[in-house]
Amino acid sequence: MTLSRPSVGGALLLLSTAVVALAAATHSDGVRAQAVQPAVVHVESGPPELLEHYCARCHNDDDKVANLSIADLRDNDLLIGKHADEWEKILRRTSLDEMPPRNKPQPDPAMRAAFIQWLKGSLDAYATAHPDPGRATIRRLNRVEYANAVRDLLALDTDVSRDLPQDNSGYGFDNIADVLTVSPTLMDRYVNVASKVARMATGMSSPRAFVTSYELPKDGSVLNSGRPAYNERAGDALPLGSRGGGAFPYYARHAGVYEVSGWLNSNTNNESDRLKEDKVSVRVPLKAGAHTIGMTFHRTLAPDESVQTLRNDLDKVPLPVDAPKPLPLDVLVDGVRVKQISVPSYRLSPRYSQQNFPRDVLQIDVAGPYDASAKDDTPSRKRIFLCRPRAASAETACARKIITALAHRAYRRPVSEADVAPLMKLYASERAASDFDHGVAAAVEGVLVAPQFLFLVESDPAGSAPGSVHRVSDLDLASRLSFFLWSSIPDDTLLKAAEQGKLATPGAIEAQVTRMLADPRADALTKNFAGQWLYLRNLDQQRPDITVYPAFDARLRTAMARETEMFFGYVLHNNRSLLDFIAADYTFLNQRLAAHYGIAGVSGTAFRKVALDPAWHRGGLLGQASILTVTSYGNHTSVVKRGKWVLENILAAAPPPPPPDVPALQETHDGRKLTAREQLEMHRANPACASCHVKMDPIGFALENFDAVGGWRKQDAGQIIDAAAVLPDGTKFSGFDGLQTILLARKDEFAGAFTRRLLTYALARGLIAQDMPTVRKIAASAAGDDYRIQTIIKGIATSAPFTLRKTPAK
């Protein structure tokens, strides 16, 4: 019996109607919000004459340089919160000593300091007295949040994000409300995923067998010699004494027999070939639920891993004369060997022989179930089926209990009869056509496409005036916290505290943050925040030129990402100082990455914390190969990309976009290959380019000792690298170590920049001028606590923009 599901049009109508209703609803019974009354602010008179003497010549209504005119600015603007955007822009430029420009008359340092202090104090005082949390926005869960919410709601250990299209990004993140749109096509995908998930979670999936394929991450064929294989453990899910192969998560929909197949390498010039001679299969029993399926060989002590450098054809490569040897290939389920297959050490192909690399697995297929048995009591079924009716007369009451509990967790608040009734209707319709379990599955599907689950919709107190500011309800605050720290729904502990109104008590939010950061779900901050802040998600798309960097391979790429993820996670979970991101005396390495860095004494594939010698020129984010690789091109470094990355991500001082038709850098001159410095010196001869490059290039030059994949080098284009640089203010420094010193001297700027990025991610919107006082307050608080990262996180979680809400205009 198949589970009926609503049409796409019906689901969209349900969504649009319910979202409008949710946006208008107050839920006054669950809102313990208090209006925030504006206070009186007193601003001392300051020295605005600095603007008249040093700024008005360029920033007037006629010239309007940088699209800024101060003609309409008045010092009493700061009393009434007027022209906040312009005043914040002025504060930032003067604080960074960027204005007035170096070639213009400069104010006395005392005058500049007094102006900055007056302006900052005035802006911050007004923001404290008149908190403005910005525009309230209904937000759709992005695909990662949706998948995490499904996992935690239904105890379903499978990632459904891959079944949904990639989300758009705004302000550097893919959880920004304004870009998370809804279309009929997207809604159709959500309906399809909800149908699939509901069946899996309730055990109602079709017992029909089908194949799930997993292609192992491998390098491409090297000079037509096949895809490389290595005599080392291929992943943490495989045994210590293993070699090659791989493992992947698989969800068995039913208990039964499954066929696990491996496609082995054949060292042809096109390893995408899948020939039956290279396939091995076994059948294994699996219980319903989540598993890890793997295949691996045994590691050998002295394998022949020589790579042929000639093109692999029968005229140049001799055929093997020894008979192939039998090799044991283990089939693993959840880390335990369940079967062993004997395979030949090579297969003589009609094209050429399999002798360049050890035998390895390129792809794993799992087919099934065959002979499906009765439904297992999986974690999902235990989570959903809180009761089992003993008679038909008890089914409706049991279904209501199940659906009410499920909706309570999914909607992240107590539910009413109006919430439960539509779900009970879905249950009743499917129950009449099938049975109790199918009826519950229909209700689960309804929950997963309900706007109360799919959207974060916050409520306002009854009677609140449009534009008024109030504290968000505890229930809405719980969702804000959980999606900020976990990219998922609140757990029972947080939801219970919100329902009891305890989040408003002093210290409650900080205690929840401490608890939640200790939970494994806080790894979402590493994957989602750090993955986007540091551009780690771009690493998979990076394709270094193998002729220039022949040592670069899939193992190294994976190790690069792992180092940075473990480094960020260590700083986060151990409440380390933010300054570790600039300069740290430790990192996380395995043998492959340590060899890339030229660091001895690290053996094996497992990662471990390694103390760094300053002579190795590592430590901090800018010494890590992942960052250096994503800020390079495939065959050479990029001074500009690296400089821009530091300005944007470390100092929050992004340069303006380049003008149109910017000419490419000239790589040669008079028949001689130019270094990166020489190329940019010629490029900066254009005045239109010089103004931006004067900020970016010194930073990029300091990192030129790192090649395009993060290896250390001393020469470029046959010349000794000159890593000396001069900042726009005349400060001289040299190389990576000098850049670290410069950035540490600007640690308050970095704390502010990090806070801006994390606050953007937490609020799921771009920051506005009214948010800048909050950024300064949080960063200053962190500075007083050795710049500890959790101080910033707790500062955000208790800040006005995070805990307050403005009632939208009608």
Provide a brief overview of the structure.
Helices cover 38% and strands 13% of the residues.
Separate helix tally? 27
Structural class by secondary-structure content:
alpha+beta
Helix content: 25-40%
Poorly predicted runs: 1-32, 305-311
Shape: flat
CA radius of gyration:
30 Å
Largest sheet, if any? 4 strands, antiparallel
Number of strands: 20
Mean pLDDT: 87
Q: Terminal Cα separation, in Å?
A: 47 Å
Description:
- Among the domains are: 48-129, no CATH class; 210-370, no CATH class; 527-741, no CATH class.
- The protein has 27 helices and 20 strands.
- 38% of the residues lie in helices and 13% in strands.
- The strands form eight sheets. Strands 2-9-4-5 form a four-stranded antiparallel beta sheet, with no helix packed on it. The protein has a four-stranded antiparallel beta sheet with strand order 3-6-7-8, with no helix packed on it. Strands 1-10 form a two-stranded antiparallel ribbon.
- The protein is of the alpha+beta class and 810 residues long.
- Residues 139-202 form the DUF1587 domain.
- Residues 473-599 form the DUF1592 domain.
- Residues 1-23 form the signal peptide.
- InterPro entries: DUF1585 (IPR011478), DUF1587 (IPR013036), DUF1588 (IPR013039), DUF1592 (IPR013042), DUF1595 (IPR013043).
